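Hi C.,

You asked whether I'd gotten around to modeling the 528-residue construct. I have! Everything is below, sequence then structure, no commentary in between.
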Amino acid sequence: MSETLATTVTPAGDPAADPAADPSYDPRTGAQHGSVPHTTPEHVAAILRRAQSAASVIAGTSPATRQGWLTAIADSLRTHEDELVRLAGEETGLGADRLHGELAKCATSTVFYGAVAAEGSYLGAGTEGIGGDSTLSRWNIPLGPVAVFGASNFPFGFGVIGHDVASALGAGCPVIVKAHPAHPRLSVRLAELVSDALERAGAPVGSYALVVGFDAGLQLVDAAEITAIAFTGSQGGGMALVQRAAARGVPVFAEMGTVNPVFVTTDAAADSAQIAAGFVGSFTLGAGQFCTKPGLLFAPAGAGIFDAVRAELRQAPSAPLLTAGIARGYRAGLTGLAEAAAAAGNAGADSAEADSAEADSAEPDSADGYAVDPQAFLVRLEDLHPGSRLLEECFGPVALVCEYEDAAAALDALTRLQPSLVASVFTGGPDDPESAGVVGRLLGQVGRVALNAWPTGVATSWSMQHGGPWPATSRSEATSVGAGALDRFVRPVAVQNADPAHLPAGLHPDNPWRIPRRIDGKLTLPAS
């Protein structure tokens, strides 16, 4: 089902190291521990052929059967939890507690997507008479093979398995995953477990495969067999995929992220110490490497929130970023933010360590690995204008605080921000006179508003929306988390005057898939 890729050990810094391989580094030390060879063009082509052959078989398989496949994957992840967390720790430096939690959520969400598939409403099945003896039937069909580009910051949640993979399989599509170079050895092992679980559960050959290497990823984007692409990562990477796939009209569901705002109303500012502690905890979670990280907090002047943030930061530890490149980008980003703040006349930067913005020269074999310190900057409303460096995302544990004198002016400043995935609003309660206006303004430029909660928590549920207007994502109508995630990988079709042989099982009179259907305009649920 997926080819097993053996790892090869090469010494760190060895000039003879194979350039056609992804090296594996430990972010905590910068030391290299093996590598994974890139997938050859011939091998990618063979994987694509198998996926294409499997597509019609998977599409014709009942959603309940696919639910069994996903449950088998989740069971395998749980069985091998300790091994997988150890591997992930060696390649991400994210810590055992975080990784155990992420793996548990990945297994739970995988089961959830199977349940969404089995429930069947994503199929949108319906049939009706349209006059005389004519009928019209409509339902959603799977697109076909899907390419998934795994993320660096969620090795389980958005990697070789996770939301994109599980929702595509649940929707009835074969999946080919491109491993992220930040954790190649983990990717190989996860792919082995997923492939074995699918095979044991009876999924057809070609249902799932892994490829490694930049060129292998480009080959997937260009391949005629690929019908959709899911991506989680940087704006540069996501837009490059969008532009390349546009030549073939292939949809790219890229979740890229921008600066997520937090707005503290005047009434809510009475809890300034608690808000500051929550803000620092949220933007430093996972070393600030969440797409839902709060990046800019608006607070009433005089509430003392920035001073409280500075006090919290003095207690915040340094933490390794995922890769040497991300660490260099973070340090460069700090320099840019500091220069932008200084140019605007603000000297309010503070950090857990005075020299946290030192030269960005860390190499993979640095004794300190890719560790960085968290930092916050104080900015003014008038500095938040289009084109300002202050409005560009800096990936890592840094955030801005903007103190406002006038709530209406602060709301106007919000409209100058790039659209984002999520925003938080902290209010003084249901009678807070400012909260409704703030929420109303934010809904026009984010995918989700969290009231009196930090944005970093994302629930895998029926009502979750994890997306947002461009440039937060490439498709604002889509979500990469929650029941709606399956909708990305199907499209509607209709047949007029269909005989039973022309219809899917879900539209047969006896409804063998036991799914909700709309018959002559009336929603009909399967008998319990």
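If it helps when you're writing up: The radius of gyration is 24 Å.

Thanks,
B.
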